[in-house]
Predict the 3D structure of the following.
Amino acid sequence: MTNRLRFIGRWQRLTLSLWALCLLAFILADTEIIALEPWNELGRMLSGVLTPDFFATEQLIDALWQTVSFALLGVGLGLIIGVPLSLVYHHPIVAALCAFIRAIHEIFWALLFLQLFGLSPVTGILALALPYGTTFARVFHDILCQAPKVTYASLPYGSDAVSRWLYGKVAHVLPQLLAYVRYRFECALRSSAVLGFVGMPTLGFHLESAFKQGHYSEGAALLILFIALIGTLPYWCKKALLPLYFIAALWFLPPVANIDSQLIWRFVSEDIWPQAIRDWQLGELGLAAALGQSASWAFELLQTQALEGIGATLVLAFAALGLTHLLVCLLLPLGYTALIGRIGAGAQRFGLLLARSVPEYILAFVFMLLFGPSMLPAILALGVHNAGLIAFLSGKNIKDSGLETEGCRGLDGFGYQVLPRIYPGMMALLFYRFEVILRETAILGMLGVATLGFYIDSNFSEIRFSGALLLMGVTAMLNVAVDAIARRVMGEQLRQPQRC
Amino acid sequence: MLLQLQHLTLGYADREIIHDLSVSFKAGEKVAILGVSGAGKSTLLNHIHGQLASVSALCAQSQGLVESLSLYHNIYMGALARHNALYNIANLITPFTSRLAEVSALCDALELDMPPSQLVSRLSGGQRQRVAIGRALYQQKPLFLGDEPVSALDPAMADRVLELIIARHETVIMVLHNRAQALAHFDRILGIADGRLTLDSPANKLSLAELDEFYAQASPDQVDVSGYVAGDLPSNVRGDGA
């Protein structure tokens, strides 16, 4: 028996502890199924999907274009922010600042900028560019760190620093950098659509109103167009066409309303501060009393909303993580052509496209109709969506490894050669996605699942900006902490931040 | 005198690799360094490169090829120091015709007969080695430092490439495994065993048998088998038979 236990290596231990933790979260989560007689509504939904109405709104094309344009400009500005930051990312302060900024979901940034700039494109583009730019900073830094250093020795003495850096380092990882930008652009399309849920004129706006009002034919049409948009990305997103798209995106930008500097100043100087501080500003309260009252206000907010929010967020995220892992393990072999055949693998790829293209929000909405309002729909939505993405990326790794064509056929080939090769990469992806899952619980908060996102959203809608900002800070700290733990689990803690 | 090393000791924190080694190199010499794996040859060569960086081109075992760049760009990298950063960036976007002609001529000399736009990730082991040599040649330095640069080439091609390297450099210091190549192309042979210089002799005073002896003494149970079979000897070996 002890001899057998020795075969339980690092990855098996990691997997088993992950399952245990996620099972615990699932037990803790409120997963009661409340039958709501959903069949009537589901039937209408299904008939909507079968009879998509592409002419329900005249804004369809406009919404589609706005979605693309926001994503393009958001990623563009994100690159302008992220590339220089990646060069100084080894500095702990830069790293911490970036971690904080990207820990806050696009939706929250949008909610925040909505107060400053109103429904202007600036809101949407900044909301995308800030978290994306800081993510670029970290990922580019990581990729550049992985570039082989051996080339420097073979460069001639006296080459200038820029040439050495470009030829000796960047050139090594340029394909990875470009692939990452491309992947992030796909993410940005989704994020851009999701920004519609808070009022930006993108697809999400029309999707949400269509689904909320029960106009499923219109909703289905929007969804189909969106999936087609993401599915055909390789065909329309060509390097040569990108400058053209950029010019078009800038040219056709909706008019930027005059930015009201007074409004911004009022927001910064008054709105975001707790009541007691404002009283002190007005001279109605002494400084000591104001600080004391603010402290007790913050303490109460943390106790009532933040703690419960953190609990619900973590339970939801872990349960979703476990489900994601299970689904990926099931879905991966189904995409292995040498195992399942061409047709089966094609069907799997289409399924993955659906799973990763439909925004979590819509998935959760459908699941909520089925299972009633609990945490279960949110867990399912996050699990399905992220499993779709991870299985898609891992499937690409299988393809790139060339194992499929090397004759590793059947379940033996998959189990002995493919899985051991890609499992570490898949787990790294899973842990990275955990950070994303944690952020995405924000969107589900908008659907009423009592995560931190729910409390932030309610604070914003009750115009309690001070509370919203405090909770956003808490959210960011939580994400940073979880990210640090995840990195530790993956054994990265020994690596000192290095300059690349 | 190009370089004089006296009582050189090199190593990492926990392990000494070169012990108290003294040797000097003169300009114009063609020196082969022999020794079993792990004897400290590469460490010595890297040290020499560190001392003579400004006049030498290093062709290291790790090659340092950039997979995602073309054959042309990988060889052009040898000329980075001859041009300014803007020129180099522009060349990265689209090659300059005059440079392309120079590199193509070099490719011909190295018998690399694929288009210069070919990505190096598509090349075979022997082709990659010649690209790495091409980069070092394109540096156009008086001193060539090579760490087993022709180990993946067939004997006939290795001979031609070694001749090319030697013809284009005033001084050559090269780590080799193949005794026959060392005798045929170099005029001085150094033997390193266990981090010490145990052999330093003009090549024409040595025979293959003596070199075999050296390898056998260096590490009785670790005789290098990658060398040669007696019949493979190039005709121009100057061994005096012994």
